[in-house]
DNA sequence: ATGCCGGGTCCTACCCGA
């Protein structure tokens, strides 16, 4: 089973990139973040012609997540469980597919909106931890992929790419990411590649790509049983070097078939 | 310390991202 996640920074701008990439990589499921449109404007047809059906949690202008799948999926959540109803930002979608749950998430950045904005990011991480704990309690196998907007350690960003006060590296953000690991989840990329940076994002500004001033903020976390099936996990760096790229690249995770 | 670039929208000046 091949799972992938990609913050595309507008699906309407990145439609040709995504279509070409699907043809080449052929994931079973691709989770998209920052589609930046309502469902009615999502270019479903160009992906349908490649054999992918779309499930969309859209929002005008900002945020927005979606699932493209070439295997049957059933949507289990269109928002992160536990968040107040007043939070209408489109940042979470979850599907059941091939006997597992696959969540696609776009965490708040936490640098805008002052103290309230940062607190909202931490609350989102708290609810994600609660949801992961509930799925573990239910003995459900699951994967949580997406743009976490957290650099878990100092090895996860290029020197000088972020200030120590940045919401992506603040201790409160990292503590909540560690809680996910301490619950028993596996960071798929780090499990297979303990040392290489494996950046997934390079800012459009300051020639960040040319200087390889990147961040590792897109992650794939696996429940214990799925971690046993992990065979490969890596960002697709080459996508950042193409014309009119997203500032994020896809992250691809391969899982072996479950034991018979 | 700020802008850089590149999306978006109440359409063109400003908000937001990370």
In short:
With 260 residues, the protein is an alpha+beta fold. The chain is 25% helix and 25% strand. It is built from six helices and 14 strands.
Number of strands: 14
Biggest β-sheet: strands ordered side by side in the sheet:
3-4-2-1-14-13
**Name of the CATH class:** Alpha Beta
- Note the beta-strand portion: 25-35%
CATH architecture: 4-Layer Sandwich
Query: Main β-sheet: number of strands, strand sense, barrel status?
Result: 6 strands, mixed
N- to C-terminal separation?
15 Å
Taken together, the total number of domains comes to: 1
* Shape, per Cα inertia axes: globular
The CATH topology label is: Deoxyribonuclease I, Chain A
What is the succession of H and E elements? EHEHEEEEEHEHEHEEEHEE
Number of helices: 6
- What is the CATH homology-level superfamily? Endonuclease/exonuclease/phosphatase
User: Can you tell me the residue ranges where pLDDT is under 50 for at least 5 consecutive residues?
Assistant: none
**SS content category:** alpha+beta
How confident is the prediction overall: mean pLDDT? 97
Share in helix: 25-40%
Radius of gyration: 17 Å
Describe the structure in your own words.
It is a single chain. The model has no long low-confidence stretch (mean pLDDT 97). The chain has helices spanning 11-25, 44-48, 114-137, 171-182, 188-192, 224-227, and strands at 2-7, 29-33, 53-57, 65-69, 74-77, 92-97, 100-106, 142-147, 186-187, 201-202, 214-215, 218-222, 230-235, 251-255. It has 260 residues and is α+β, with helices and mostly antiparallel strands. The chain has one domain (2-255): Deoxyribonuclease I, Chain A. It is built from six helices and 14 strands. Helices cover 25% and strands 25% of the residues. The strands form three sheets. It has a six-stranded mixed beta sheet with strand order 3-4-2-1-14-13. The protein has a six-stranded mixed beta sheet with strand order 5-6-7-8-12-9. It has a two-stranded antiparallel sheet with strand order 10-11. It binds one DNA strand of 18 nucleotides through residues 9-10, 13, 34, 36-37, 60-62, 109-112, 149, 161-162, 166-168, 201, 203-208, 215, 217, 244, 246-247.
């Amino acid at each position: 089973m091949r799972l992938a996640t990609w913050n595309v920074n507008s699906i309407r701008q990145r439609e040709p990139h995504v279509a070409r990439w699907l043809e080449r990589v052929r994931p079973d499921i691709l989770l998209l973040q920052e589609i930046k449109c309502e469902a009615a404007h999502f270019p479903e047809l160009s992906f349908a012609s490649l054999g992918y059906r779309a499930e969309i949690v859209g929002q005008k202008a900002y945020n927005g997540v979606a699932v493209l799948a070439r295997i049957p999926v059933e949507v289990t959540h269109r928002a992160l469980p536990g968040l107040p109803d007043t939070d209408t930002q489109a940042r979470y979608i979850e599907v059941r597919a091939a006997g597992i749950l696959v969540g696609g998430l776009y965490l708040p950045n936490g640098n805008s909106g002052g103290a309230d904005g940062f607190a909202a990011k931490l609350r989102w991480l708290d609810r994600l931890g609660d949801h992961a704990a509930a799925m573990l309690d239910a003995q459900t196998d699951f994967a949580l992929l997406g743009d976490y907007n957290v650099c878990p350690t100092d090895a996860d960003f290029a020197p000088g790419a972020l200030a120590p006060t940045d919401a992506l590296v603040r201790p409160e953000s990292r503590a909540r990411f560690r809680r996910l690991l301490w619950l028993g989840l596996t960071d798929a990329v780090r499990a297979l590649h303990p040392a290489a940076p494996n950046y997934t994002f390079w800012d459009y500004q300051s020639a960040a790509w040319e200087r390889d001033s990147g961040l590792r903020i897109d992650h794939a976390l696996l429940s214990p049983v799925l971690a046993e099936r992990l065979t490969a996990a890596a960002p697709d760096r080459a996508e950042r070097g193409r014309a009119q790229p997203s500032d994020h690249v896809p992250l691809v995770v391969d899982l072996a078939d479950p034991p018979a």
